[in-house]
Amino acid sequence: MAEISKEEIIKETFVPDQAEQELISAIAEKGEDGLAEFFMQNRERLHRMISMRLDQRLTQRVDASDVLQEGFVDAAKRLSEFVAKPPMPLFVWLRFLIGQKLAAIHRWHFNAQKRDPRKEDAVSQRMPGADSQVIAREFSASMTSPSQAVVRAEMSDKLAKVLEMLEPMDREILVMRHFEELSNNEAASELGVAKGTASKRYVRALAKLNKAMAANSNAIPEV
Are 25 and 92 part of one and the same domain? Predict the structure, then answer.
């Protein structure tokens, strides 16, 4: 497994660009109503984040909408603190709080005091990582038609094996860019790495997947 240099893991100080600053100012002016409006605009993306990370054993017991609501309530309580000194983009902050709620649910259900040390990495400590099987199913579904069920299953199995060989951060950035629709800068902010590092990791992970899928003559499109 490739090591990450100290330069790569140092988190860049967040400086909002003009668009982000205008968004934060608007939220500060409207308060909770403004946050609720922003939340509803991004609800689908946040719901997708939960779907990719919710342990499959909990899908019948945990409602993603409840996780979203709990995360929003937490964000509303902390809104004044955020607008006073934003530590990250607004969407990344909201996603982070909802991810923490999801992590708490996993701990409660699975007694996380007995966590697998092999999974202790910078990503999983913030929120549950996306499941390789789920990522593979989503990717294969996007590249095949409903009538190609056999092809889709074979492709999904192959992708899952490749994804398991990737470093956790590489899997995460694929999910963030493709399914959660985060920009490179947002992904870098969430992962706590330099923007250039996030970009390089995304390109590298995508190249590995495309190489593995070459035999199926299907390439995963860049975002």
Answer: yes
Q: What is the CATH number of the domain that holds 160?
A: 1.10.10.10
Which letter does DSSP use for residue 100 in this model? H
Residue type present at position 189: S
Instruction: Measure the CA–CA gap between 98 and 112, rounded to whole angstroms.
Output: 18
CB 7 within 8 A of CB 194: yes
| Residue whose pair of structure tokens reads 């951060």 in the numeric block | 169
Residues 6+ positions from 67 with CB-CB distance below 8 Å: 50, 54, 98, 101, 102, 105
Tokens linked to 22: 């205008």
Average pLDDT value for residue range 141-170: 76
Cα separation, 220 vs 213, whole angstroms = 8
For the segment 15-40, what is each residue's pLDDT rounded down to a tens digit? Answer: 888 999 999 999 999 999 999 999 99
Q: Copy the structure tokens of residue 8.
A: 């790569």
Residue 142 and residue 99 share a domain: no
Q: Are 73 and 150 in contact (CB under 8 A)?
A: no
99: which 2 tokens?
């991810």
Written as six digits, the tokens of 212 are: 């593995």
